[in-house]
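hey team, just a heads up i'm posting the complex here instead of the shared drive bc the drive is being weird again. everything in one block, sequence lines first with there labels, then the predicted structure for the whole assembly after. its four chains so it's a bit long, scroll down
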Amino acid sequence: MKPTEEIIRRLSNYRRVLYKLKSLGFIKVFSDNLGDALGISPTQVRKDFSLFKITGKKKGGYEVEVILERLNTILGKDVIQNVIVVGCGKMGSALMNYNGFASEGMRVVAGFDADPSLVDPEARIPIYGLEDLSKISQQFDVKVAIMTVPESRAPQLIDSLNEAGIKGILNFAPIELKSRNDCLIHNISILLELENMIYFVNNLDDKIVI
Amino acid sequence: MKPTEEIIRRLSNYRRVLYKLKSLGFIKVFSDNLGDALGISPTQVRKDFSLFKITGKKKGGYEVEVILERLNTILGKDVIQNVIVVGCGKMGSALMNYNGFASEGMRVVAGFDADPSLVDPEARIPIYGLEDLSKISQQFDVKVAIMTVPESRAPQLIDSLNEAGIKGILNFAPIELKSRNDCLIHNISILLELENMIYFVNNLDDKIVI
DNA sequence: TAGATTGTTAATCGATTAACAATC
DNA sequence: TAGATTGTTAATCGATTAACAATC
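-- predicted structure starts here --
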């Protein structure tokens, strides 16, 4: 069985919770603990672990340190993951300067923008023109890009990103881009999320189904 | 059957595609058209429509104008939906000034921040201290909040938001907050999304399962 | 009419959960 | 030992898809 996106999402959450438990002094955890913390069944925790050959001891549970090491390897935390930000408007620059990346083993190595007035190769995180996409991406072995450009620019940019060797795009434009064979795309649409919540909030009488 | 989050997400996407088709001159569409555009089966389109009593004509398909009107009603587009932004740091202010809300029938009526130096009730979109949450939320009948605060502040803020009558929270802090009975929470975690993509990009040999 | 498309029922598929033997 | 917990198999559940009668 191949891991699905949902399973990997849960692995990230196990990892996050395990660090919290570790800081509380936990040496070992049971599938029950993790299930409670994530609001899922202990069986699912065990099943997920089983898929990745993460084993525990009957009655003894799982060793926090051991699972964490395994999870870090699976999620690529043993190497710094370089990413770029394409589109350095308000949203893009807010993301570039977000300081949560480092502690998650990620680094924004550069920004890119079509607007020459935003280009600044001397900045702490340099900003280049789009013509430098391939050069910089190859130099830093970048595989993943955050895309914060206007909706109209998004579709054509995908081709440039692919040519530059980008395999994963986190798209913030309010347009649902479909993954291709050669490129995984995740869409984060604030408008869509709000619209979704607004529906359920406006229909609270209907029991919320999540 | 109650609509799930996924179904509402698809309704949003039908709506988006339908506006595009309308601008291309389409008067009617078939479930095939919509399925193709969204990469889903025509059966699913018909099933979704059926759930909301959106009907078409055998052989004649669906009338674009009619479905759009229905979808707009379902998704609350017939009334302006007021939202607030809690936490006016870089991310929060980038969101407040994002100009995609208006065309989707949403309006950011105010921002809130614990830091008094950010408070500015005279700004185009006024920024208040947290003590004004209830007053302003009630004044503008706000039910949904965008939360862009540091992780450490997030949990306690939920209580304040609930007291202010907020029923839905779009959380940007990198902490997976669980929905409660009285409050729907959607988490948007850039780090989690990146981590997820990084996994699949680093394991491209394993066929991607989406 | 013949062909195409809806609306719905039944079948399939995949993901979650229950159950339980193994065993610490 | 008795009780608790893992690891896995079988059962369940829900969502998607196939099939098809109705009909335009």
